[in-house]
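FAQ: What does a multi-protein file look like?

Like this. Sequence, then tokens, then the next protein.
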Amino acid sequence: MTNQYERLIEHILALGIEGTEIVKTGTWYQLALVHNTVLFPICADVDGVEPPSHWPQGRNLSQLVQEIFAATSPEAKFWISDAIPGLEVPELVLRPSLAELAARDPRPELVLVWYEMHRSVLKRVWWGKVELLDDSGNLRWTTERSLLTAPERTPLFVVRGQDTDDRFDSGDLPEVLMSGRSDEERKLGIPPTTEAADASEEDSAESDEG
């Protein structure tokens, strides 16, 4: 199953934007860097017309997420992971891949791509520049939370799940041939022939023969 990070990267690379890079996070997923801007997709329901100013409730604000925000914040102070073994420092420690990103001048900005899904169908998606204010997950949107999806627009990406094509009722309905009884059959009082009736008659015949 393709995840949202891979799908977004596929679409960005397909645009052929010069200078596009792939940022390694040291985990199973990567992020797209376009025009010195990191695109970070997050799937969560939105109660209203725009995403809230808080990291999604129930989502873990992991160490990695904090590092990504720090690497794209102009005011964040950090140490590179394992730079001085055993030394306790008050600043956030970044893994080398993200520390390299943060060392750029100017430091990249972060655009959060916030989207909603219903099963495997994309409902709504927004994007905007955002900063992490604290460890509790409070956010500050530094630009408008622009709505990307509308009825006349093509979805940015869709995460496909196993329920898209594998449902028991997802196939085409079979054609059932139906024919009416002739006038002669109606006049003679001949009962209509059905599969169930045929099966019952065959069973009865087999029982008699036994």
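And here is the next protein:
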Amino acid sequence: MQISDAESQVMEVLWKRAPLGSEDVVDALSQTHAWAEPTIKTLLNRLLNKGAIEAVKDGRRYLYSPVLKREAWVARESESVLTRLFDGRVAPLVAHFSKHQKLSEVDIAELRKLIDEIDS
């Protein structure tokens, strides 16, 4: 299942606060995006047709909830990035970030901890 960048923004709202009516999704996204209501409703319908979300009737409206788990989506997306850009290898990814974006002390400590855990 392919989720576009715009659709992922809708999913983030639903992952955080579902179930939500379309008006709630519109309100949440209008604070950070200059998207019109019909655009957001189109994104909801696309996600519904893809099976990424579900809609349950609640009176005169529908409440939307994610079917696609965020963890599963993140795993697929990160694997795709690794495969496309770094031949499936993590070390070149980390090297890229260390050269082009300064890694913080916290980042370095977390990486060391992960390596130690892998070595154990």
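Q: Is there any per-entry metadata?
A: Some entries carry free-text notes. For the entry above: The chain has a mean pLDDT of 94.
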